[in-house]
Amino acid sequence: MIRTRMRKILRDIMSRKTRTLLVSISIFIGVFGTIMLFSMRDLLVRQLEDDLEQQKLAMVRTSLAANPETTVDNERLLSTLREQPDVTTVEGQAVYPLVWRQVGDEEYETSFVFAYSEPYDDIQLEPPSLMSGDYPRLGQNELAIERRFADKYDLETGDELVLRILSEAESGDQSEETWIVSGIIFFPYGYPGLNDVLPEDSVFAAYDDARYVAGFEGFSSIYARFTDFAAAEQQTDAFTAAVAAEGSYVPVLSYTEDPADHSRIRFARTIGNIMASLALLALFVSGFLVWNVISALITEQTQQIGIMKSLGASQYDIIVIYCGIALTYGLLGIIPGVILGIPAGFFAAQGLATTANSLIDDFGYSIPSIALGIGSGILVPVLAALIPAWRSSRVQIREAIADRGISSGYGRGPLSALVGRLPLPMTVRQGLGNVLRKRGRMALTGAAIAVAVAAFSGVLAAFLTVDTYLDDIFSSYNYQFGITPNDPDRLDAVRTIIENDFDQLTLRGPAVTVAVEIEGFDREYDPATGPPALFATGYDPSSQAYDLELIDGQTLTESADDVIVSRGIAEALDKQVGDVLTISAGGHSADYEIAGITSYPLDNLWFTWETLSSLAGFTDDAGNPIPGGVYVEMSSADPTADEVADTLQEIDSVLHDRGITASYSNIVLLNESISQGLSVFQVIFNFAAILVALVGAIGLFSTLSISVFERQKEIGIMRSVGAGSRAIATEFLTEGYVVGLAAWIIGLPLSYMVSLGLLEMMNVTEDYQSTYPPRVFLVGLVGVLVITSFASIWPSIAAARKRVSDILRYQ
Amino acid sequence: MTAALEMHGVSKVYGSPPNEVHALREIDLHVLSGELVAIMGPSGSGKSTLLTIAGSLEEPTDGTVLVGGSTLADMSSDDRARLRRRSIGYVFQDFNLLPGLTALENVKLPLELDGVASKTARTAAMTALAELSIEHRASHFPDELSGGERQRVAIARAVVGNRFLLLADEPTGALDTANGEAVLRLMRRACQRGIAGVLVTHNAQLAAWADRIIYLRDGCVVDQPAIAPQTNPVFVGENP
Fold it and tell me: Is residue B68 part of a domain?
């Protein structure tokens, strides 16, 4: 019987090549997607775990600003901090702009130089790792470059770079020096400072050398490790206070991160899990198709089943035959799915690694992902086939042999009766009636499409909401960039230069940005999706640097010690206009009255710059507040990030000529970077959603094709009584559209949940999570109609083309 | 009297050399309005092919077919579908009723396909069912009807409206003798109202109900004996 069973399985598979192809393709899509996306996640997480060595990760990172009232003493600071309770390691890190050019070039580039309190060989926390050459040595005019910097500028060890000596620029000296590239470094940890420092802009030098070429005062951050993470969390405030008390620096922001749960690894894992889940969903959906196909096959072959049973085939034999067919479908999908999924997973991981500040060089694969793909590819179709196969095995021999494929209840029931009374053309009623008659099969197909609608619309809704979210954030800015001179005393000079030398620019007043804490407000921010702290902005209200939409209260007055808070903060604290908040920054605290509440979607506070600088301790010797930088608006309407960058380069060049070094914040670039970063994820999510949609479309296509096959006689009869091609096609198209529309209606609430999950994952504030852009309804409907049309049109045409004489003669 | 169906030199070849099968060879046939013609012949002689070509369900390889004076070859597929809806009725051996539709819905199907208002179609269908004494089963589904009842519904569907050509392929094959004769009686009555009928059958006794019998063998007409009026059962067993 085994050989007979095998022959029957293979003949059934071969005799319906199109159906076999469709089912196998849908399983292939699921297996391919599962292996690819799970491999991508595994390879990326594995690489990040290799890169970000847990025992070398800092537990507390404190960003610093040099205290304008004192002189920096790094040694004293480090020894003070090393004596703090539970501290095991403390190191300082400086990251500042560096101006350089290639030998023979005239154009200068601005990159960032990294320097450390410890010699490179002795760095304990988040050390740069040497890939080739040597670490830069002090006093030897050497610097090392990040490997992506080397790739970007086509540089290698031994090449020379011309550096502007910014420490001497203040005196008006335009000196340059030629330094040599001592080695190539891989730096996977990144720099979580206020400005994004990209690996392709990173170079490394010994600390004193870096100060010499970049002209900075001291560290930009302190990294610390404690006996354990619990101790780190407990001691962070004391640690920050110790930094402030020592006096060399003003602590701008301190945040903790558990080395065992690094935000970047967690984020990669979460993203990977969601995408891979969508792929598994596609595979699961393909199970519906297998179920449908096996059910249809059994309906067609009920008589054969009866004959086999009459000849002695057991229930087990029948189940094996139909599960065997499903298994064969699975194997046909698995083989190409594995062959293509493994390299696709590697390349996807390689592509995504760059967005996660990592690099994957060597080809890799994930055995668990492959096993999952193969296992699911086998189990899903076999399990899907099990119930219809089991049912078929229980059919009574007499009934099976006499079966004509039409049950006695065919066309009966209240719904069928209702459809019969609808004032619709007969062909449309026939289509509706068939959906009702085959409702189990249609429900599975509809469920597959509903899942596709949910995935696609959910992703679309989430990203449209994020667009609105970003628009609401960035439309609040009335400036395109900010300039923060490394020496705050030079701010007046910067303002004068901008006013005199750049006609197309308008100053939007002095400004300062500081991380703050509000008493009673302990929301945590994920470093993977934004700055890990609550920030306050100090600005000049008369400059109109911000266009804040107030939902209550009034804007700031220049002299008042009051604050504007974003809605999220007010709601979390249950505070109204007129209530008082206790706010601390840089180790100081004070009470402020809420003047207004704005609809700005991120948590943020706004003060006058004088108020905030005073709070944070940014004061001169006389105790007067000093601003950190200045906001600037360009006169051209909606400048691009590149246009802003060109202007900044021009300003930078002029400032260097006047001996001023500065950092810049390009708001337009920030907006574009976030949008581009999101668009990468959107593409990947859409890819996964399209996989599901594709499987759904194949499911509908197959179901309708089966329907055409089963109802050839009906088509013949319809033709014989004068139904034209259009009438026949309408009947089958009606079925497709009914299933598609039902799937759309079911898929919409599901898509809301998908959107909610994605927005939650992207840390979009709660106000936005509950929104669902209305146009998604329409786009979803159009999408369903397109999918349904594509899936239905061919079976409908095939039905319309049936040769009626053949059908009726040989049925 | 005008010819409802004309076939001139109709041939039908299936397949291609060397495996071609000549189902029909140079057939000439005229069926007048009100005339019932029986086609007889052994299996594979081309009877059903002749009927499907006459019913525009299939196109001849060669020759011309005219239904109601219109040449089928000159018609588009939509025109032919319209012709089937309005002018040609088909009755099959196994009834070919749509199982999801009631008897009434099956009968009014061609009218509704032709865009006739539902109420009008219903009236016409009920009339057709009443003429065949099956109106009391109008709301029943095909599997609730006996074989004879099913075939009467099929005939009602074939004659509903203003059809002038009734084509029946072994309409009594699935029925017992009594029901078979009843079906022929109904066909005969339809012809008496002016409808031209073509009946394919193996059964010589049933063929005797026809005005003419045409014998086919290997796709060729081999004999067309006339039937003496006194032997025609319609005059014996029926009160027209």
Answer: yes
Q: Residue A535 pLDDT more than 80?
A: yes
- Looking at the domain assignment, is residue B80 inside a domain? yes
* A80-95: b (≥16 Cβ within 10 Å) or e: bbeebebbebbbbbbb
* Average pLDDT value for residue range A101-114: 88
Q: Is the minimum CB–CB distance between B163 and chain A shorter than 8 Å?
A: no
Q: What is the DSSP string of A598-660?
A: E--SS-EEEEEHHHHHHHHT-B-TTS-B--SEEEEEESSSS--HHHHHHHHHHHHHHHHHTT-
Distance from CA of B104 to the nearest CA of A (A): 12
- B16: Cα separation from own chain's centroid: 30
A72, A119, A250, B99 from A219: Cα distances, Å = 9, 15, 11, 86
Confidence of residue B67 (pLDDT cuts 50, 70, 90): very high
Q: Over chain A, what is the mean pLDDT? A: 83
Does B58 touch chain A if contact means CB atoms closer than 8 Å?
Answer: yes
Three-state DSSP string of A709-763: HHCHHHHHHHHHCCCCHHHHHHHHHHHHHHHHHHHHHHHHHHHHHHHHHHHHHCC
Q: Is the CB of B84 less than 8 angstroms away from the CB of A714?
A: no
Residue at B129 is within a domain = no
Chain A residue with minimum CA distance to B116: A425
Question: In Å, how far is A811's CA from the nearest CA of chain B?
Answer: 10
Question: What is the tally of structural domains in chain B?
Answer: 1
pLDDT of residue B232: 44
| Interface of chain A toward chain B, CB-CB under 8 angstroms | 406, 408, 410-412, 416, 420, 423, 425-427, 430, 433-434, 437, 713-714, 716-727, 803-805, 808-809
Residues of B in contact with A416 (CB under 8 A): 100
How distant is the Cα of B110 from the closest Cα of chain A, in angstroms?
5
**pLDDT tens digits, A650-696:** 898 888 777 787 888 888 888 887 787 777 777 877 777 787 778 77
Local confidence band at B236 (pLDDT 50, 70, 90 cut-offs): very low
Note the pTM of the prediction, 2 decimals.
Answer: 0.67
B-chain residues near A435 (CB < 8 A): none
Give the separation between CA A346 and CA A37, rounded to whole angstroms: 9
CATH code of the domain in which B185 resides? 3.40.50.300
pLDDT at A143 over 50: yes
B58: chain A residues, CB-CB within 8 Å: 803-805
Asked if the Cβ–Cβ distance from A425 to B58 is below 8 Å, we say: no
Amino acid at B33: S
CB–CB contact A721 B110 (8 Å) = yes
Among chain A residues, CA nearest to B169: A809
**Cβ within 8 Å, pair A411-B83:** no
Q: How far is A722 from chain B (nearest CA, A)?
A: 4
Is the residue at B48 inside a domain?
yes
CA–CA distance, B209 with B35 (Å, rounded to integer): 11
Q: Does B57 touch chain A (CB under 8 A)?
A: yes
With beta carbons under 8 A apart, name residues in chain A contacting B77: 724-725
**b vs e for A300-330, b when ≥16 Cβ sit within 10 Å of the residue's Cβ?**
bbbebbbebbeeebeeebbbbbbbbbbbbbb
- Provide the pLDDT for residue A769: 66
* Structure tokens that stand for A15 in this block: 């005799």
Question: Is the CA virtual torsion A406, A412, A413, A418 positive or negative?
Answer: positive
What is this model's ipTM? 0.71
The answer to whether residue B193 scores a pLDDT higher than 70 is: yes
* Residue A136: pLDDT over 90: yes
pLDDT band at B184 (very low <50, low <70, confident <90, very high): confident
Supply the range of the domain harboring residue B76.
3-98+164-223
Residue A194 reports pLDDT greater than 60: no
Distance, in angstroms, between A730 CA and closest chain B CA?
12
